Amino acid sequence: MALATLTVDQVLAWRAGRHLLHRPADVDPVDVVGRLVGVQAQVPSAAEQAVAARQADPRPGALADALARRRLLRTWAMRGTLHVLRVEDAPACLSLLAAGRFWEKGSWQRTFVTVDKLAATAEAAAAALDGRTLTREQLTAEIVERTGDRTIAGHLGSGWGALFKPLAWQGLLVQGPAEGNRVTFTRPETLLPDWPGLPDPTEAASRVVPAWLGAYGPASPETFDQWLSRGGSKRPALRGWFARLVDAGELVPVTVDDRPAYARAVDVDEIAAARPDDAVRLLPAFDQWVLGPGTKDSTIVPAARRAAVSRAAGWISPVVVHRGRVVGTWEARDGEPAVDLWPESPPVPADGLDAERARVRAYLSGSGDA
């Protein structure tokens, strides 16, 4: 069978629809999070805005409501960053992260703790959180008491969650309901009585890889792994996940502007028929449109402008997107979206930009009017 030959313009036009950037009616936060295979939530307000950017009638606080109703959960997931995930997707995503066993690498152990110390920490945390919800300070104190090891207190108290991330990936803890402005932790089965535990990684990949390609494809296994773990998955396992899906007929090889990639078989005709439109979108910091393919993807973010998007300390700027490409950045100044368009980018329709600024202004003011 001949490979389908696709163009970047077709791919970006198709992705815009898959990302819900045309804002279909009756899309709720759970729909958005599921379609994007998680929304990065290091900054909760950015996660809220990422959902709102894909809704016809956004309501501030809607994502927090879905978390409170336990239709979503928040935990350390892809790339070691906090994400909001659909409850039904979280076990498979975490399974693939745990399969990488990143904490067993010598560099990780030299920076943080040995595998034996981490195992003791995991056992203590699991016992401390059994049927309970604790703040970071409470959990840290219990782990230190149960292990008798005060040398780990600094790592546990770090805002980066260095020791908590491997526990999250193994399904041993998730974030619980907040206590005011304090984060809490609990066991996933305490928060969610129907929690199934983590599936086998091969089974998990059969769910996560197609779901990811359904939003960010066509793409290579390496791009998928950068999204998942910054390239940390074991190479044979990664290749095997894709090969099995190709053998099953679920994925097919394609080319995008002569570059090899994989797509879901069910999507190829739709991608080939996709055509870009002139829609302009103001997307928030850490938006999945940029994070899914990664900031190194020059079809999304021009290489010369990457530093304006991927900034110091891991900050990903709010971006202006036109025809699928980042053409500038923006920031909120006293509730007003101040836009910086890059002069070398193709012209952006003024009426579309004005409408998008008005929409964001209304959302930031708390009205949520679209």
UniProtKB/TrEMBL annotation:
Pfam families: AlkZ-like (PF06224). Keywords: DNA-binding. GO terms for molecular function: DNA binding. The keyword DNA-binding applies. InterPro entries: AlkZ-like. This is Winged helix DNA-binding domain-containing protein. It comes from Micromonospora citrea.
